[in-house]
Design a protein that fits this description.
single chain, about 150 residues, Pnp Oxidase, Chain A, 8 strands
Length: about 150
């Protein structure tokens, strides 16, 4: 039986580029039972700091899980079904943004892609406070992924 090509391990630079070019990933946190909790989220990749940032509200189960067990990973699909990147590490959850324009609010604003920047920054920052937004910062200590070079 003929065997097809083997998956190709992606370099750190290629993995970082994949994380930079994608917008959505699946965040994995740990339930108390030990089973994974998976949720698809918009993220922001800071390659220099090796941090993946997520915006969420303080009342989400993933926030509770990360405060109990900070180990987490995010899986990001590549441009085809054969490629992916995984970023693993420990996450920290920020305090809740409580005053429009505070440091957390500014960090959340900085995460918004340029094409989606709000026209009314003040209203956006007020909305973040009303929603009780926090930043999840996944400090990446392991980055891995592969691509499979086949047609189709």
């Amino acid at each position: 039986m003929a065997q097809g090509p083997a998956p190709r391990t992606l370099s750190d630079d290629a993995l970082s580029e994949l994380l930079r070019t994608q917008q959505f990933g699946t965040l994995a946190t740990n339930k108390r039972s030990g089973h994974p909790h998976l949720t698809t989220m918009l993220y922001n990749w800071d390659a220099e700091a090796r941090i993946v940032r997520f915006s969420t509200t303080a009342d989400r189960i993933k926030v509770t899980q990360l405060r109990r067990d900070p180990r987490a990973a995010v899986h990001v699909p590549g441009g085809d079904v054969w490629s992916f990147a995984v970023a693993e590490g420990e996450a920290e959850v920020s305090e809740i943004t409580t005053t429009p324009g505070d440091a957390i609010g500014r960090e959340l604003l900085a995460m918004v892609p340029e094409a989606a920047k709000p026209e009314d920054e003040d209203a956006f920052l007020e909305q973040l406070v009303a929603e009780r937004r926090v930043v999840i910062r996944l400090k990446v200590d392991r980055l891995y992924g592969t691509a499979l070079d086949i047609d189709g």
